[in-house]
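Hello,

Following up on my earlier ticket. Below are the four sequence lines again, exactly as submitted.
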Amino acid sequence: MSLKLAVLGLLDVEPGSGYALLQRFRTSLGFFWQTTHQQLYKELHGLHEEGLVDCETVSQETRPDKKVYSLNARGAAELDALLTKAATPTKIRDPLLVKIFCGRRLGSDALRAEVESHRRKHEQTLALYRMLHEQIGKRPAAVRQRYHHPELTLRLGIRFEEAWLAWCEEIGAEL
Amino acid sequence: MSLKLAVLGLLDVEPGSGYALLQRFRTSLGFFWQTTHQQLYKELHGLHEEGLVDCETVSQETRPDKKVYSLNARGAAELDALLTKAATPTKIRDPLLVKIFCGRRLGSDALRAEVESHRRKHEQTLALYRMLHEQIGKRPAAVRQRYHHPELTLRLGIRFEEAWLAWCEEIGAEL
DNA sequence: ATCATCATGTAACCAGTTACATGATTAC
DNA sequence: GTAATCATGTAACTGGTTACATGATGAT
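Thanks for your patience. The regenerated structure is below:
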């Protein structure tokens, strides 16, 4: 249900083509939710069939035609309904944890190398998140207001990456 | 692939029936990976078809028959192969984040209530993890050795729950 | 009596991934 | 010429969830 919510939420801010939505997704919700263009297009078809979004085909001169989707009244109602339903916390579901859990067969060297590789990735992600957070902080208050909710999620992202980093360092030293 | 790895890993420690494996799963790997009995049984059927596990039907007097699965040489090789493949980090994928991201339509009251409900759940989970961690710490060194890898994953669990808690408190106060 | 535990499964469905496919335009 | 960007899709498959199903034993 989360992708549906995500797409409705993106369309609530601004209408757009599948392609445009995917780009907005990648630089926002995409930091903590994943999708592919295939799934996004599928979701948009589904929403259209359900009558929750309107779709207008726009011809362009130098670019291929595009389908611009926009939220209609029924879609807005559905978005509100989804927002009202309680969300339940999910598990971490990171394959690294399964590997470490089952890792007694693997030597310490291999595990340490894997943890180090993850550490580097999380370090990069943390740097990115901090940069994005700083950028939001620099905007005038009026603009910052519009980014308030996304900014809240970014802060969890930062805390998580910090936790990953600290853990990788701690257990890397112990392995 | 992670469930496959998880099941092979569990069988590597000790053979067991689907039912027994599920119970071991729930009190260990299940803290950060999810599964249902349906999926576990399906996975076991698959592993058996692939010839990675052996299966022996055991009749019991007062209990229904059970199928005891055990890792064979091919399964052990497959486990090693899976352990050697690098794992890539995943996204958080928690529906609460999607909701908050799209939450400008929802009032602050509703969001605050939802965050508070999550805070309570994470508080409970943290308490559980800390208790489990303490229990491991109390065991004699020889036993602790066997729980070393699981204990490492538990420590990430604790860090994550702490991050969730701190974040819920922070943004709950701000909303 | 009623409920939890032991023990296993089928079936339908939804969500997500990977591979394959097309074709123009623009920037280097 | 080569690669990136714009723009959309189909199809096969894997992984995960939910609903339905059975039936004995042991504890309260």
